[in-house]
Amino acid sequence: MSPIAITPKPPYYAVIFTSLRSDGDNGYGDMATRMVQLASEQPGFIGIESAREGVGITVSYWRDLESIKLWKANAEHLVAQKLGHEQWYTSFKTRIAKVERDYGI
Amino acid sequence: MSPIAITPKPPYYAVIFTSLRSDGDNGYGDMATRMVQLASEQPGFIGIESAREGVGITVSYWRDLESIKLWKANAEHLVAQKLGHEQWYTSFKTRIAKVERDYGI
Fold it and tell me: Touching check for A66 and chain B: CB below 8 Å?
């Protein structure tokens, strides 16, 4: 996948997930890889961008709110969310946003 | 500033800036620091999150579209945008998005 997501003409949706990790891996790395794979197979998935440097920022792009809702409710993703909440993150914020305009080179 | 931005109850706006850097610093580091400082002084600025790991992702949060428009037109910021376009980035994408919902721990 391109490190800068290839996205269609707006509108589309972004899920901005910002997090701080707890110490130790504890299965996080494998699960993160699996979740990117699984997300990319979901209906309405467009692309994903991710970087961690102290704080981690992952932005996934989706066709509409319904696609995001289905992804949030995915059974395997629910397990990951639970472990994230309990073990992997000391804090996080998820923001759901409608992309109205974009430009770039 | 907190690495995870402290943001108000939605709606508010996010500017998602994703980029790939060219080789060498060429004044980029100093300008990046200056732009965060300058942005934080603008009307309507709420907060900023940033990480680079291969790809760079910077998300700044703003009260409304008018604040984003003014920041984009800021004279010193225009100089930085020009240098970014010409020298610092091999590619970038800027997305302007309305945050509709958020949650976290």
Answer: no
> Chain-wide mean pLDDT for chain B?
97
Tokens 């500033």, located at residue = B1
| Residue to test with chain B: of A7, A9, A16, A64, most B Cβ within 10 A | A16
**CA distance linking residue A60 with residue B75, whole number of Å:** 32
In angstroms, the separation between the Cα of residue A41 and the nearest Cα of chain B is 22
pLDDT digits (tens, 9 = 90+) for B59-83: 999 999 999 999 999 999 999 999 9
Prediction ipTM score: 0.97
Residue B91 exposed, middle or buried by CB count within 10 Å (0-12, 13-18, 19+): middle
Partnered with residue A75 across adjacent β-strands are: none
Q: The pTM is what?
A: 0.97
Compare CB distances from A97 to B18, B52, B100 and report the shortest one's residue. B100
* Whole-number Å distance between alpha carbons of B56 and A30: 22
Q: Which of A78, A89, A99 is nearest to A56 (CA)?
A: A89
Q: Is the pLDDT of residue B105 over 90?
A: no
pLDDT in tens, A13-52: 999 999 999 999 999 999 999 999 999 999 999 999 999 9
Q: Which of residues 2-61 of B touch A (CB under 8 A)?
A: 3-5, 7, 10, 14, 16, 18-20, 49-57, 59
Binary contact (B96, A101; C-beta < 8 A): yes
